[in-house]
Design the sequence.
């Protein structure tokens, strides 16, 4: 059975016997008939390399937690977010690698990869917010308008870049992506269970095509919000020597590449029958590969390749260099490794839900503020109208 049929029989496990073996001797004896094992092996090497690099980079950041400095043009809270983002490449590539040879469970396995991806986006944004916090505190209630030129094509004007309005709007536009990603994963699993997911098919009889469209919209919204965010605070990035653009591309770059090339492009090639399945006659273990399973194998190779490149870039943009430098300039205080790990990882989940609730509370306050402003303007208009009427009556 091919996953290109839509709808499909309900349930997660295929009855097509798609369970390729691990006879590594076939890689040497029948290399041209063992491409699935070669692909699995390459993905494993890249995933292992990503873990080694990530753990080393995380250890550098944990050791630099010993330098806790006074409140200045940098914020010690940035490192907790760095530690969390660093785990994104190895966890995501490992979960994708697990799904390589069990394509029938890939929807369920990749749910957890999506959760880590969502948390990485969230921590990228909160890390940049932490870098801006000293500037925000310094500005206090200053109303500073800002105009930014986007891609040399259109202009964005913000009345007050330090105001509640712009901050909360940006929070909403950014947080919608990780929240929707998690919801999308739940929908995918449920649709797969019901047999109406049709992964890898652009048939409008399945949920997959609709989820891809909504994901595209959600990704476009967060990209627009973050590009604007980076442009609005460009002076602060420069003054604080903050590598905001590099940090942005370390997180959003892989997501964009994997979505456009690993998902949309490969699915299009599969739908156009450029990527084809095999009946097992040309495979060393005689296992048939459906076209969509071949596509998924290529997708996993792309993911693992992108993530090993990404973790290399993180050494430059998510390293502890700026924290150590500012610590030496502003005074230090020892922090144990266990305290650093606790602050970086163990308090994460409660902190995430607390910030989510705060965002909701701030949104409610902003809504009430806008309603009150609208009422005040209406009262002023009515008062002005009465004054004009009375003036005309006197004349």
Sequence:
């Amino acid at each position: 059975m091919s996953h290109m049929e839509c709808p499909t029989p309900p349930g997660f496990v295929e009855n097509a016997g798609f369970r390729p073996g691990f006879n590594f001797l076939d890689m040497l004896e029948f290399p041209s008939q063992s491409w699935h094992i070669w692909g699995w092996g390459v993905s494993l090497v890249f995933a292992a390399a990503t873990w080694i690099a990530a753990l080393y980079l995380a250890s550098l950041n944990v050791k630099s937690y010993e330098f806790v400095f006074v409140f200045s043009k940098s914020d010690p809270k940035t490192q907790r977010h760095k530690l969390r983002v660093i785990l994104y490449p190895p966890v995501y590539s490992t979960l994708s690698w697990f799904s390589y040879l069990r394509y029938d469970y890939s929807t369920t396995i990749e749910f957890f990869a999506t959760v880590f991806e969502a948390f990485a986006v969230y921590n990228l944004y909160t890390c940049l917010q932490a870098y801006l916090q000293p500037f925000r505190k310094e500005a206090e209630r200053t109303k500073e308008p800002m105009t930014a030129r986007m891609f040399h094509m259109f202009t964005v004007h913000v009345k007050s870049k330090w105001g509640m309005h712009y901050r909360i709007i940006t929070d909403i536009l950014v947080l919608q992506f990780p929240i929707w990603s998690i919801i999308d994963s739940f929908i995918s699993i449920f649709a797969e269970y019901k047999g109406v997911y049709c992964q890898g098919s652009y048939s409008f009889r399945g949920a997959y095509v609709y989820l891809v469209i909504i994901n595209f919209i959600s990704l476009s919204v967060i990209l627009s919000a973050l590009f604007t965010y980076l442009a609005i605070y460009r002076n602060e990035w420069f003054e604080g020597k903050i590598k905001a653009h590099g940090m942005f591309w370390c997180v959003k770059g892989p997501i964009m590449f994997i979505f456009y090339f690993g998902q949309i492009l490969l699915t299009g090639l599969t739908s156009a029958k450029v990527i084809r399945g095999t009946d097992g006659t040309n495979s060393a273990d005689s296992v048939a590969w459906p076209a969509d399973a071949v596509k998924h194998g290529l997708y996993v190779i792309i993911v693992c390749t992108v993530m090993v490149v990404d973790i290399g870039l993180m050494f430059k943009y998510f390293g502890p260099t700026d924290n150590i430098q500012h610590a030496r300039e502003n005074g230090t205080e020892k922090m144990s490794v266990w305290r650093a790990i606790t602050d970086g990882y163990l308090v994460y989940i409660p902190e995430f839900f607390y910030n989510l609730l705060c965002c909701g509370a701030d949104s409610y306050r902003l809504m009430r503020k806008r309603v009150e402003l609208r009422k005040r303007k209406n009262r002023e208009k009515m008062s002005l109208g009465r004054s004009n009427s009375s003036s005309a009556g006197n004349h």
